[in-house]
Design brief:
The chain is elongated and about 45 Å long. The C terminus is likely disordered. By secondary structure, the chain is α+β, with helices and mostly antiparallel strands. Helix content is 43%, strand content 27%. The protein contains five helices and five strands; from the N terminus they run βααααββαββ. The strands form two sheets. Strands 1-5-4 form a three-stranded antiparallel β-sheet. Strands 2-3 form a two-stranded antiparallel sheet.
């Protein structure tokens, strides 16, 4: 059963402007440690590719926050939501900390799609509720 959907489009030029204003601190705010390592490697080889990577992660996390219905408030944080790739190349969402516990307690799973072009990055997220898989975890946002 669908719990929520979220979509986001991000202007890569805005990400570039934020990066130029705040430097690596901007990337450190948005990316998990693993994403940060990937971003650094891509940026070293081709800075524009690094900016698009940052924009797709920003977009996917925004879409995810919309799909779970809470926006950017606890337990949702930029760094607790990580966008990874399966061996097949398919993007996946990996959660950490309190967000992971909140998500698991509700028996949810997420699916994400990301894309980018020269000036834009876009993402779409579907979150499903899987009845019978909830846990009894209590924490921020528990109901």
């Amino acid at each position: 059963m669908i719990y929520g959907i979220g979509t986001d489009i991000c202007d890569v030029r805005r990400v570039r402007a934020s990066f130029e204003r705040h430097g690596e601190r901007f990337a450190q705010k948005i990316l998990s440690d693993a994403e940060l390592a990937t971003w650094k490697a891509r940026s070293a080889r081709w800075p524009e590719r690094g900016l698009r990577y940052l924009a797709t992660r920003f977009s996917a996390k925004e879409a995810f926050s919309k799909a779970i219905g809470m926006g950017m408030r606890l337990p949702m944080t930029w760094r607790n939501c990580e966008i990874t790739k399966a061996p097949s190349g398919k993007p996946e969402i990996v959660l950490h900390g309190a967000l992971k516990e909140w998500f698991k307690a509700r028996g949810l799973t997420a699916h994400v799609s990301v894309t980018d072009e020269t000036d834009y990055a876009a993402s779409f997220v579907v979150v499903e509720h899987n009845p019978g898989t909830e846990t009894n975890a209590v924490g921020p946002g528990s109901q």
